[in-house]
Write a structure and sequence with these properties.
Largest sheet: 12 strands, mixed
Strand order of the largest sheet: 1-4-5-7-9-8-10-11-14-15-16-17
Strand content: 15-25%
Oligomer: single chain
Mean pLDDT: 91
Distance between the termini: 47 Å
Number of helices: 19
CATH topology of the largest domain: Rossmann fold
Structural class: alpha/beta
Shape: globular
CATH class of the largest domain: Alpha Beta
Number of domains: 2
CATH superfamily of the largest domain: Alpha/Beta hydrolase fold, catalytic domain
Radius of gyration: 22 Å
CATH architecture of the largest domain: 3-Layer(aba) Sandwich
Helix content: 25-40%
Number of strands: 17
Low-confidence stretches: 1-31
Length: 539
């Protein structure tokens, strides 16, 4: 029986008929052939992983103490030391979350601050420590987990050390409250990421990685987390040498701690904690109740459980960091060609397809008084369906949309004054489908690129997505080669691939499409001049 699976923010899901039960990172056969990896002595104690197909993996290593009990809503504490060897041979559960749309996995593992490492077991050909790619998962800051990503393939193809991490999500990761001021209020998940980076800096050389060549990378909420790390150099100085932002509106306004505290007060009241006893009361609330109220509140709007700016952990938003010249490492920045068509697909599946007569009304929900101009620029006759037309416009620009190509270009323009920026667009409309056919043309939607880096990626650890088509597999090789080149040198270059120029003008954007690599004018393609005429302050 087919399983209907949709991709959520920062995650791709397999088509039901093609999905097969698998262990992420280890198939059933390979798990039997895996052997023990070399013992590594970390600063906390000895760790032993497994080797399979030339890749050593160390899975489920704690990088911080369990954030449970009195450690709820505190800065991450150092992990306990252990004299006995830690057997690191399996992924640990994701941080607490609920099933969304009956499609993703739930987790009640509040003890969840673990990381995973994959490294080629052979010595590097140049004899040097390998560059490190530090991956932060997406999931709208309320879902996802490192256990969904097959990092061995990226390590093998890119000849890299690859690290993936869990971090606190939802209310546990992003609650703000007056009694939490001065620590990490509204940004505990970001504090976790900073702690994981410090662990990597202390230990990655023991795994064959170069602590001076760490690239932070992520998609969707993971990319937003990269933006947050870029904005806080005083907390992570020297811990990374480059950054890759895959589909995040870093230049959009972020919520302040004061705004987030209003959300926190409502949360405290909903779980039965009064103002005078809120913090201690909150730490005693059952996890099931935390998740239930968190989920209920998230239905009121997207800007609920997101990083808040104004604490010691996250004192400023990325645009302020750019204006102050604080971001000095090279950056790859971009997203997918048809980002927002995914969400129009959601609306269709939820029973809200749009007719031609409803097209203008749906645009008005996003563009208000500017709708007549948008209708003239995006006439319905040019598109296969009203939903595809709306998704195309929003993918180019939407005033309330963080995932739009003109927004990515604006952030790149601001950033290039201070550091090297390499803009890109993932455009393969032959990517594996992200949902059972909703009856509209989707294309290269949000998170479509994930299985190109992580084969078989899906929203569940017990299901594996379909293989890439041959042309798309070649594109996967191109993506990994250029990402790896950037991790090694700070410049995305690789043999037998067209030169990817530094972003200095609208024609310098690198497009990844099956059978076609090279630069194009993204500003013109996404009609950014038109959008700037309507929204000059935003673009």
């Amino acid at each position: 029986m087919p399983i209907r699976v949709l991709r959520l923010l920062g995650g791709i899901a397999p088509r039901g008929l093609l999905a097969v039960i698998a262990m992420v990172g280890f198939g059933m056969a390979s798990a039997q052939s895996a052997t023990r990896a070399t013992l590594v002595h970390t600063t906390e104690g000895p760790v032993r992983g497994v080797v399979d197909a030339g890749i050593a993996q160390y899975l489920g290593i704690p990088y911080a103490a369990p954030p449970t009990g009195q450690r709820r809503w505190t800065l991450p504490a150092a992990p306990a030391r252990h004299a006995q060897t830690l057997v690191a041979d399996h992924f640990r559960e994701a941080c607490p979350q609920v099933v969304r749309f009956n499609l993703t996995e739930a987790s009640d593992a509040e003890d969840c601050l673990f990381l995973n490492i994959a490294v080629p077991s052979a010595r590097a050909t140049d004899g040097r420590p390998r560059a490190v790619l530090f991956w932060i998962h997406g999931g709208a800051y309320v879902g996802g987990g490192a256990n969904l990503y097959r990092i061995d393939h990226l390590a093998r193809q890119g000849d890299l050390v690859v690290v993936s991490i869990n971090y606190r999500l939802g209310a546990l990761g992003f609650l703000a409250h007056p009694q939490l001021r001065g620590a990490a209020s509204g940004a505990f998940g970001i504090a976790d990421q900073q702690a994981a980076l410090r662990w990597v800096h202390r230990n990655i050389a023991r795994f064959g990685g170069d602590p001076k060549r760490v690239t932070i990378a992520g998609e969707s909420a993971g990319a937003g987390s990269v933006c947050a790390l870029l904005a806080t150099p005083e907390r992570v100085a020297g811990l990374y040498a480059g950054a890759i932002i895959q589909s995040a509106g870093c230049g959009n306004p972020w919520m302040s701690v004061l705004e987030a505290e209003e959300v926190g007060r409502r949360f405290a009241q909903a779980v039965g904690c009064t103002a005078g006893e809120s913090l201690e009361c909150l730490r005693g609330v059952a996890l099931a109740q935390v998740l239930a109220v968190q989920t209920q509140m998230a239905q009121t709007g997207a800007r609920v459980w997101v990083p808040a700016v104004g604490s010691a952990v996250l004192p400023r938003e990325p645009t302020a960091a750019v204006k102050a010249g604080l971001i000095r490492v090279p950056v790859i920045n971009g997203g997918t060609r048809d980002e927002m068509r995914l969400y129009l697909g959601y609306e269709v599946v939820a029973g809200h397809p749009y007719t031609a007569a409803e097209y203008a009304g749906r645009l008005e929900q996003s563009y208000g008084s500017q709708t007549p101009a948008v209708l003239a620029q995006y006439p319905l006759s040019e598109y296969s369906s009203p939903s595809t037309a709306v998704g195309t416009a929003l993918s180019d620009y939407g005033p309330m949309v963080p995932l739009s190509n003109c927004t990515y270009l604006r952030f790149g323009r601001e950033l290039r004054a201070h550091t090297a920026v390499y803009e890109y667009e993932f455009a393969d409309r032959g990517a594996p489908p992200v949902m059972d056919d909703p009856g509209i043309e989707l294309g290269a939607v949000h998170s479509a690129e994930l299985p190109y880096f992580f084969p078989g990626f899906s929203n569940r650890s017990d299901w594996q997505g379909p293989a890439l088509a041959p042309q798309s597999q070649h594109l996967s090789d191109d993506l990994i080669a250029l990402w790896a080149g950037f991790a090694r040198t700070g410049v995305p270059q690789a043999a037998h691939r067209p030169t990817w120029p530094r972003f200095t003008g609208p024609g310098d954007v690198y497009r990844f499409d099956a059978g076609s690599l090279g630069t194009f004018d993204a500003d013109s393609s996404h009609r950014c001049g038109f959008w700037r005429s309507l929204y000059p302050q935003a673009l």
